[in-house]
## 1
Amino acid sequence: MSIEVIHATNLTRRFGDFTAVDHISFTMNAGEVVGYLGPNGSGKTTTIRMLLGLLIPTEGEASVLGYDVVRQAEQIRERVGYMSQKFALYHDLTVGENLAFYAGVYGERSPARLAEVLELVGLSQLEGERVSDLPVGWRQRLALGTAIVHRPKLLFLDEPTSGVDPTTRRAFWDLIYALVDEGVTALVTTHYMDEAEYCGRVGIMRDGKLLAMDAPSTLKTSALPGLTWDVFLDGVSSTGASSLLVALNALETCPCVLRAGLVSDHLRAITPADVSAETLRQHLDEAGIEGLRIDPAEPTLEDVFLALATR
Amino acid sequence: MKVFGNFTTFTPISMDILIEALNLHKSFGETRAVDGLNLRVAAGEIYGLVGPDGAGKTTTLRLLCAALQLDRIKDDEQSSIRISGYDAVRQTELVRAQIGYLPQRFSLYEDLTVLENIRFFAEVRGMSSADWRPRCMEILGFVGLDPFVDRLAGHLSGGMKQKLGLAAALVHRPRVLLLDEPTTGVDPVTRQDFWQLIIRLASQANHDHAEVAVLVSTPYMDEAARCTRVGFMRAGRLLIEGSPADLRLRLKDQILELRGQPLDMLRHLAHADQDVEDVQMFGDRIHLRTRLGSRDLVEERLTQRILAEGGEITLLRPVAPQLEDVFISLLDQPNSSS
């Protein structure tokens, strides 16, 4: 049986005449890892602040762990963990002191629990190090440690991996999944399209609106209007960036192409489901571009975002 | 492709190398922000400088546009920056004239119109009153802002501001364009537009424009893949560079995708396989990096183990590696103690 940990209905927040979050409704069940994906300014942090009871919704309502975000904010904050974009750590204190401080705030005084958290986030060896001497990746782990010291069942992670290298980011996600194994539920915001793929479900935010929320694979089949193709220019004689643009232009004007775009060193085209690689190639041949390689492609969440955003 | 050791030697400058940086060093107090960096970018190239915050990307760009001074180094070592053939230390003004720089946080005058903003930058760059208007209209046309010349910059959308910033950096026809994380946190729709402009810029060679060299810093792997060449920076140095396609070839035939139920069991079994070097968990699937030459073996062995444990496989197939896979496989992993 799934237990609902977040239930938001028409959640809205305006600042003056600017609508930061615009009638958002979604639910989240225990044990899920949900990604909240959107560019800067799309309303991700504002949503989290409302769910934490830090910001009163202008309209709509939400409950977190069964508590109302307006009337029972205290109960929510005692029971959830929150890691903010700017990790709130004391740079002149050690790893152990930072953790003990946050544990104290939540009334958690057991040294065994502190040791357990340090172990979990992989910082046992660094307990005595000052935070100012740590690289960003370790600070990020400590920030996560301070957010889970009171054993929250629900974690809000706001852009936890901004600006770290891929190795650190991957290690951090391993950590999130280790926590999920122990029964934690996590809502993770990100503006990295590829990072959202790590989540079981992804909500796509743009201009304060939640455009869709579903499993990445479901989004790819439901939000995209047809087939995705990768078009490579390997066989084209004049290589270089300009031929990419010529080919892009040809794709964009091709009647059987719904959307075309640049993806790294090749092109991507979305076509209706009844278009084959051969049809696509014929159209490009007619446009005078020959020698392209056309492969069926796995759509990305960026494709999904673009499809939803330009709908 | 090059994987760097401690030092790389350089061949002499050829005609179209527009950025040539040799053994750059820059420290701030104890911090070595840039530590022996070598970089060459040719006309027509889009070079992606990829790395985490603090890797030295911004410092590198600032050194190249002579906004920061290089550290002095030992007498027996050489250190130099040449932009379009000019020496950045002795010919600073000439170098600056060759460079367009879009910093991470650029400022526009919000209470001036689009055209007034561009005019301001044109005049700062010393363009004559006869010259600025046609050039401003041309560059605004290039970025697609010509219908909005009279709009206040403060009333532009985020994406349009970004394009105005680009136009301002390009108004004096630089041959070298330095872009510092131009699309971090930017809407993907804007990102697509922006990249089309950059590619067009790097590739157009006509009566007015000689080919431009673009150096762009980014924290996004998927964005780095759009560049003609990519260099991965860490702790003030380049660790590896090459074209995205060449870099991906390093892991050809090593990545497997696995889908099935229950995912956590599949993950644990994949971790336990002796020929699996890395397990990447996605929300609804798992990617495995297998030891070179062992992919088929892993595929077979893992299938048997999962079925024996009562798991279910919906898909197990080889997939193409991503740039991120390549970097992770190459880098030592100081933070991966979990």
Note: The domain at 2-112+165-248 of chain B is CATH 3.40.50.300 (Rossmann fold).
## 2
Amino acid sequence: MNGTVAQLTARSLLGRRRTIVLMLLPLALLSLSVLVRALAGVEEDTAAGLLGAFGIAIMMPLLGLIAGTGSIGPEIDEGSIVYLLAKPLNRYSIVVTKLAVAVGVIVTVGVIPIAIAGLIMTSSLGGVTVAYTVGALAAGLAYAAIFLCLAVITKNAVVVGLIYALIWESLIGGIVPGAQALSVQQWSLAVAEQVDFGAASSAVDFGTGLVLLLVVTSGATAYAGRRLQTLRLNDDA
Amino acid sequence: MSTFVLDQVSRWYGNVVAVNDVTMRLGPGVTGLLGPNGAGKSTLIHMMSGFLAPSAGSVTLDDRPVHRDPEIYREIGLVPEREEMYDAVSGWSFVLANAKLHKLADPQSAAKRAIATVEMADAQDRDIRTYSKGMKQRIKMATALVHDPAVLLLDEPFNGMDPRQRLHLMDLLHRLGDEGRTILFSSHILEEVEQIAARIEVMVAGRHAASGDFREIRRLMTQRPHQYTIRSDDDRALASAVIADASTSAVELVADGVGGSLVRVEATDFAAFTHALPQLAAHHGIRLLEVHPADESLESVFSYLVAR
């Protein structure tokens, strides 16, 4: 971890229009949860449905995509990453720091709003609320690591990330049961299910989900650090 | 005192050879890396700054390979060609951040010193995005100088600068070179290079075309055969007068395609020929209508050097 890298990352991640986009998703979730509470009262199944379908399935991949790619992609595109790379800094520490900043942003605009939404809909911090909050944290971490790594590998990280989140997880995962085993969404739901059995259900069991989350998160981070060691700064020969 | 050694360095991308078997040695003082666009200057600088592995050969700084060794940046200051920085911060914050990234003992005073060196103290509190091109270039210099490196690599530092900024940077590079730093900067403009660099390395089409003192390079460049096309009111008389002079080696009378004619002259001694031509014309009562150097583009000058 490096404080200066974190500061520069946070400034370029939050200094732009991205902040507004980042705020839209939690605002939508909170408005919906207020609406649900007003119309349906305290209804745990409805709350779980909203937190799962919107919080985990839509917000987390999108926030992970924006914060994960945004914490390093623009710097690589613009070439300003050279100011970090031309320093006696460990490349892995650069990646871990950027991941930490991205996760910090996701917790602020994703995980905490999910906890608040759960609280609004169930009037309780237990059960559904805590299950989806922990699940969202697991999802946010994994998505951020995957999409950060993607941004180091390709300039089209946002497109590739969207295709993964929308086509693979939502579409194919919804039709083909086997595809669900390879889905961050299902792994995080397994974590949520473990926290509160009735609140969530996942296509994979907890052990599998947890191991895959850990392997993918640490693997993506390690690979991003490795790629950063030999990152080519110019594409013009 | 640091010495860069490039030993039979080549770099290719797929089938394209960007740098072809270059061997050079760079010691303290200012060296200019001269060559037309696409000659491989940037590729060479990227290899020297450790971001690109040579496909063959070795790049070492004081006997240490530079690729994949972040510790090397304690010795190297790099001024990249691209202008983008973290532009939502002030010049001061950015230079200070660079000092901290170097883990310097006293980043504040290091940043202060670097900003003073490039004379940016007055504008240091403004956001980088409000800077002019020349100011950005100076802040880039400050970030490269903040850790007092023994080596400074600059990729096309004069690009887009106005004459005053250019002069300022030349002066600065002079001073830094006199302090005993090893400085390499690339440029495609001979005049720029010869004003500051004691030594010049010329790259053409990926090859190391010439090396040495700028006077030597200039002599090579000016004493090559020069071609001129001349239009006059009596081309045949001019042709015979010109070939009689010792400064020329060939004369050709050609149609200009629109019913008239042209004299094409190859001069072996460029200085003598340009001196003799008006005198010859006056002596023979010929009016010169147009005198045109045929191959003065930088590329042709460089390709002559390569062909030698």
Note: The mean pLDDT of chain B is 88.
